[in-house]
Design goal:
Shape: globular
Distance between the termini: 36 Å
Radius of gyration: 24 Å
CATH class of the largest domain: Alpha Beta
Number of strands: 16
Strand content: 15-25%
Structural class: alpha/beta
Oligomer: single chain
CATH superfamily of the largest domain: HUPs
CATH architecture of the largest domain: 3-Layer(aba) Sandwich
Largest sheet: 5 strands, antiparallel
Helix content: 40-55%
Number of helices: 16
Length: 473
Amino acid sequence: MPIRIYNSLTKQKEDLRLLDPKGKEVKMYVCGPTVYDEPHIGHLRSAYVFDMVRNYLKFSGYQVKFARNVTDVDDKIIEKARTLGMADLNEATAQVSGKYFELYKKDLKRLGLQDPDFEPKATEFIPQMIEMIKSLIEKKHAYIAGGDVYFEVSSFGKYGEVSHQRMDQMLEDARVEANPLKRYPLDFALWKETKEGEPSWEGPVAGKRGRPGWHIECSAMSLSYFNGAFDIHGGGRDLIFPHHENENAQSCCATGNPFVNLWMHHGLITISGKKMSKSLKNFITLTEVMKEDPSFGDEILKLSFLGTHYSAPLDYTPERVKMERQIWRRFLDFFDSSRAVEKSGVKLAEKRVTEIHQSFRQAMDNDFNTPEVLTLMQGLIHETYKSKDQIAQVSAAAAIRNFGSEVFGVVFDQSEDASAIKPEIERGIAERAAARKNKDFAKADEIRNRLLTQRHIELRDLADGRTTWRVRL
C-alpha cells in the first residue's frame, strides 16, 4: 500500500509521488522558528511531527533529505534586540537570535529529536535572495518602490491556489494596512529598506541598504538546497496564508516551474480552548512540562502529540495531561511485566512481530494516522493480558518497542529507575556518537559496556545512524 498524505493544495489525500526518477529519495522542507523568544510546545509539536514523518519514511525504505530553516533576522528579533540597550544593534540582533536558537535546539535535544540534514539561517543566504529578487524584477513579477521591492500578485494567475481564497477574501483576512508604495494592497515585500543602525545589506535597489522580506527567505533557501522543486513542504496551518501562498507565487514565477509536489500542514495547539500565543501569555514551555512530570514529561508530551492527528488542533488541558499519564503508566506496567516474562525464557515469535508492524504501517500509510497506531498498541496490551499468552505478550512488546523507538522516538520500554538516569543515558549516547565519529571505537565500546553493566541499559544502533535504548533484562 502506498503512503497517502493529505495535500493542502488539492484538499485531498494523494499517493506520495516523488521527483526522484528512482522513487527512493524524498526531499522535504519545513518552515522552522523565528528566534526572538523562548520556544513553547507549539514549536515542539511542529518539530516533532516532521521528525516523526522523516522517521517513518526511512522506516518504509525511503532516503530522506530534510531541511528546516531558521529566521534569524526579522522585525520581532530587531525589536527584542533594541530592549538590550546595546550600542550596536547588529550585535544585539545576533545575540538575541543566537540565544533563542540555542534554547530551541536544547528543547529538541531534550525531546530526542534529530537535527535536520540542512538547517540554514536566513542571514547565510542573502546573496541567493537578492539574486531571486532581481530575477523577479526582470521578469516583471516584482517592482521597486522607493527603497523597497514588492511582488506583484496580479502577475501570477494562480495566486490563491494554496490557501484556496479569492482576492477579496485575502484582503479581508489579511486586514492589509494602506501602503502608498504598493500597486495593490496584497502585494508583499521581497526587500525592505532599513532604518539607520538596523541589520542591512546592499541589495537589489541601488544605493539603498535593506533586508529581505520574510517570504523570500524560505524560497531562496529551499530552492538552493534542493536545486529546484521538491516533494513535501511542511509547516503549521497558520502559515498557509500569507506565508506559503506567497512562497509558492514567487517561487513559481522565479523558476517558471511548479514549486512543490505536496503541501503538508499540522494543526495548532490551544490551551483550554484558547489559541496559545505569547501575546496572551498562555503558552507552555518544555521546562514547565518537565517540572510537572520530571521523570516522564517528555514522553507524555509525545503521547499528547501522537494522540491527536497531526492535521488537527490539539487542545492542551490538565484533563488531557492526566489521561496521557494514565496511558503512559499502562505502557510502563506492560513492559515491566513483559521483561519478567522474557527473563523466564519465553521467546518472541518473529512472524507475529512482523504482522503487528504491518498493522501499524497500514495506519501510518493512511496520512500518518498516529492515534490509530496508539489505539492498536493499547489493544495489544489488553489482548495479551486477557489471553495470558506469554509468546503473544513478548512479541507485542518487541513490536511496540521497536516501532515506538524507530518511528515515534518514544522509549516505551523503561522503568522508574531508568527514568531517573535518562540524562546520563542521553549524554552517554551523545559521547559515544562523538567517539565513533572520531574513530575512537575503544571509547565507544567502553561507553556502551558501561551503560549495560552498570545501568542495565541496552543501546541499539539503527540503520539511519540513530541510537535507541531500552532497559535490559
